[in-house]
């Protein structure tokens, strides 16, 4: 039997009604007209709605116009030719035949093309075909940077006998694919060659290729058969309608892929010349007042820009629709752009330091009187400090408030009583010499340590010496994996002199560290920004201003120009012009400040295919966007909740680290490829990453751990040996906190004996098998590269130079 049922009426819908509307039935008829909203309000509401509709329509029309403009810019007659890079995933494919078929597609006769750029009036676009040489990693990588479409060519011959697909991609193809993904893949397609005539068998092999290559390529990658002209015509029709995508970093700067490279000797400056690069302007308009970078060669100013007649027009010709050999020599100059000395960007690489910038002027009488008043008001402070300790170092030493230590007399320790009211000049005769001696010994030890671990010049080493150096690095890497940061205290040199540049930290995360303290001389040669984000925003805004600027000082996108780069070394320009017919030279326009040196930080990860250990401050080849330069990176951790970062001696696999180098300023985002060349072998892919930031004030601390072993243990007290070897070192490092590998923390109480043993007190019971450690830190800096750009011999061996 059911329970009692009560009637529940539906609630009145007055939840969103205003108080005035709920009470309007109680008002009189005259008041209703007063409370009711006027017609002007209704008109205002109606007008606001109309304004919103109009605004949405305007935004929609602007987006439609932008897409239409982008489509016309990529497919119109004024657009530069589309660059298609043919890349064979294995060495069994003939790229020359594929390139010839594409370039002669519009001609009825199978004649050899005069150039790698051809116009297709049928498809209403122009095409530049480049063949990536198999086995040349640098050439393949540089061609991929300028490609609008990468066409991966595979051969189906290896699938005839069986279904073994391991030969579709060889190890070199896998390495290049990983590099292409790190750089940023543009639009991709796969051309399948050597398919059988049987339709059923042809579809089966095509499905096998798709199933095994789809996981290595992007989802929008299309597969096309490419054996006949009909297949290539179908590919071209689809390629015409395809919306091309390219990496974002490439659209931030103007660049030019040269169709021809030559030089003009400079009679006024012997040993230099003007490098002439002819090609189509891409991405953005190039200004004659901005700097231009040629990768591997450096940054240069423009002498002038010649706007030439297009050598490959879209309209059909009677003889040929491609660049003829005679026409390429007969350039018709339409306009010449000359730089404005007042607006031209200066070629500044390093800052010129002022040797008198650190000098101090003699204080005035008012300043002396103010200092005397402050000293009189200041309370007398006496600290027990080691000899040679400055005022700034005294701030790092922790106060010892233990009652047991207060009983020790001043004569028992090597420390000195520092009186802050006493004139510092009275101690210069004894203290400064001790500090200078400590710093000199510490620097000599640090330099000797780096020299022992760094590889010497490969040309001056024999094969046995090179093998010994590699073995030493591998042993150091194994020791760093097993005992990270642990070092041995030298016996013949006091620890207070060997580790004079190190200091202890109460907390690595919260303790302060002045980023402007004791900077190296290299910091006087670099540049820094007050607000890096604002500077980047202004630099990118200037690129848009150049696009909208007048034609008197800039060449628009799609125009065929000839750049005159002045003051180029003659031997370097000769090397650049030699391989220009086979592989193009690419020049890149620089943003503001991008020629100046600073400290760049990269987020970097060791590549899985590289087995050798990667040590800090080794020489590597950095490929950052269009730039190429040599650098000695310093690796460190990336701590998000801390302003200090721990230095890493090796780049460990499986995780990201931060690599800091001295390099020209660049604005992110930019991809990074790190290559390593050893013993005359081809370059190997060592690491990949991206540009993180430009910040000289980023603090990187090198950590060392001094270890000792308990000799006698009594509850929370222990006598530790082998951490130091003299009682003076024990007294010097007494303020620094110690810890054990089992989790105990403590402090040094006093030295014991004459061989460096020390008595310690911990916050818990200490075990006999435990290890006592002391952490010390010093700031580390990258190493200045001997040569920022590659030499001429390296350029000639690479076979491809780009910017």
Automatic annotation (TrEMBL):
A GO term from the CC aspect: nucleolus
Keyword Nucleus: yes
Region listing for Disordered, in residue ranges: 1-50, 424-461
Biased composition (Basic and acidic residues): 28-42
GO BP term, example: endonucleolytic cleavage of tricistronic rRNA transcript (SSU-rRNA, 5.8S rRNA, LSU-rRNA)
Primary subcellular site in the record, as a coarse category: nucleus
Annotated localization: Nucleus, Nucleolus
Keyword vocabulary terms for this entry: Nucleus, Ribosome biogenesis
GO molecular-function terms, A-Z: GTP binding; GTPase activity; U3 snoRNA binding
Domain Bms1-type G: 80-245
Domain of life assignment: Eukaryota
Biased composition (Basic residues): 10-27
Similarity remark: Belongs to the TRAFAC class translation factor GTPase superfamily. Bms1-like GTPase family. TSR1 subfamily.
Stored PANTHER family: PRE-RRNA-PROCESSING PROTEIN TSR1 HOMOLOG, RIBOSOME BIOGENESIS PROTEIN
Name assigned to this protein: Bms1-type G domain-containing protein
Annotated organism of origin: Musa acuminata subsp. malaccensis
């Amino acid at each position: 039997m059911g329970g009692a049922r009560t009637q529940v009426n539906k609630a009145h819908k007055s939840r969103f009604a205003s108080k005035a509307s709920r009470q309007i039935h109680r008002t009189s008829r005259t008041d209703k007209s007063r409370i009711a909203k006027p017609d002007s309000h209704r008109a205002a509401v109606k007008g606001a709605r109309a304004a919103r509709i109009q605004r949405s329509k305007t935004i929609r029309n602007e987006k439609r116009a932008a897409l239409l403009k982008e489509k016309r810019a990529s497919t119109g007659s004024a657009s530069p030719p589309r660059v298609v890079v043919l890349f064979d995933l294995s060495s069994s494919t003939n790229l020359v035949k594929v390139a010839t078929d594409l370039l002669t597609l519009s001609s009825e006769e199978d004649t050899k093309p005069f150039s790698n750029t051809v116009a297709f009036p049928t498809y209403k676009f122009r095409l530049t075909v480049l063949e990536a040489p198999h086995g040349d990693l640098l050439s393949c990588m540089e061609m991929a940077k300028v490609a609008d479409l990468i066409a991966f060519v595979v051969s189906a011959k290896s699938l005839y006998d069986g279904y073994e697909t391991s030969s579709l991609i060889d190890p070199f193809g896998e390495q290049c694919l990983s590099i292409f993904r790190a750089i940023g893949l543009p639009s991709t397609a796969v051309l399948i060659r050597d398919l059988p005539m049987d339709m059923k068998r042809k579809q089966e092999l095509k499905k096998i290729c798709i199933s095994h290559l789809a996981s290595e390529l992007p989802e929008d990658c299309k597969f096309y058969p490419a054996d006949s002209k009909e297949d290539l015509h179908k590919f071209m029709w689809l390629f015409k309608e395809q919306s091309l995508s390219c990496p974002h970093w490439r659209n931030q700067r103007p660049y030019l892929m040269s169709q021809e490279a030559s030089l003009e000797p400079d009679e006024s400056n012997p040993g230099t010349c003007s490098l002439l690069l002819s090609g189509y302007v891409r991405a953005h308009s190039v200004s004659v007042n901005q700097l231009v970078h040629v990768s591997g060669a450096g940054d240069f100013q423009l002498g002038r820009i010649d706007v030439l007649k297009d050598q490959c027009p879209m309209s059909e010709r009677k003889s040929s629709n491609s660049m003829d050999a005679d026409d390429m020599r007969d350039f018709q100059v339409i306009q010449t752009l000359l730089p404005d000395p007042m607006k031209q960007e200066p070629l500044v690489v390093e800052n010129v330091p002022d040797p008198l910038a650190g000098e101090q002027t003699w204080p005035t009488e008012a300043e002396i009187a103010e200092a005397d008043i402050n000293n009189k008001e200041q309370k007398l402070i006496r600290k027990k400090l080691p000899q040679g300790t400055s005022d700034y170092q005294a701030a790092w030493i922790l106060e010892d408030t233990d009652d047991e230590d207060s009983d020790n007399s001043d004569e028992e320790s090597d420390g000195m009583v520092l009186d802050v009211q006493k004139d510092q000049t009275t101690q210069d005769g004894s203290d400064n010499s001790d500090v200078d001696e400590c710093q000199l010994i510490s620097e000599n030890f640090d330099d000797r340590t780096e020299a022992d671990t760094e590889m010497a010049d490969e040309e001056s080493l024999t094969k046995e010496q090179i093998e010994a150096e590699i073995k030493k690095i591998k042993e150091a890497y194994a020791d760093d994996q097993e005992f990270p940061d642990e070092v041995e205290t030298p016996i013949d040199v006091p620890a207070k002199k060997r580790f004079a540049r190190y200091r202890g930290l109460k907390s690595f995360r919260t303790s302060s560290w002045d980023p402007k303290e004791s900077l190296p001389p290299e910091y006087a040669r670099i540049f820094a920004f007050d607000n890096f984000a604002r500077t980047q925003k202004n630099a990118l805004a200037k690129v848009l201003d150049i696009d909208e600027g007048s034609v008197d000082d800039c060449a628009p996108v799609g125009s065929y120009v000839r750049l005159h780069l002045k003051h180029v070394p003659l031997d370097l320009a000769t090397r650049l012009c030699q391989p220009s017919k086979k592989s193009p030279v690419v020049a890149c326009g620089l943003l503001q400040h991008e020629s100046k040196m600073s400290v760049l930080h990269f987020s970097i990860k060791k590549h899985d295919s590289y087995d050798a250990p990667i040590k800090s401050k080794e020489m590597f080849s950095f490929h950052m966007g269009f730039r190429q330069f040599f650098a000695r990176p310093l690796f460190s951790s990336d701590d998000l909740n801390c302003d200090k970062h721990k230095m890493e001696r090796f780049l460990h696999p499986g995780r990201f680290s931060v690599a800091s180098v001295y390099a020209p300023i660049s604005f992110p985002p930019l991809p990074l490829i790190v290559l390593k060349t050893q013993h005359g072998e081809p370059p190997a892919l060592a690491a990949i990453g991206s540009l993180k930031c430009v910040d000289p004030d980023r603090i990187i601390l090198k950590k060392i751990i001094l270890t000792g072993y308990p000799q006698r243990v009594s509850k929370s007290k222990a006598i530790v040996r082998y951490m130091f070897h003299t009682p003076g070192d024990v007294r010097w490092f007494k303020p620094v906190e110690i810890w054990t590998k089992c989790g105990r923390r403590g402090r040094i109480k006093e030295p014991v004996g004459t061989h460096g043993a020390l008595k310690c007190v911990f916050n818990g019971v200490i075990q006999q098998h435990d290890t006592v450690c002391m952490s010390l830190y010093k700031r580390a800096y990258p190493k200045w590269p001997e040569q920022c750009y590659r030499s001429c011999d390296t350029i000639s061996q690479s076979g491809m130079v780009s910017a």
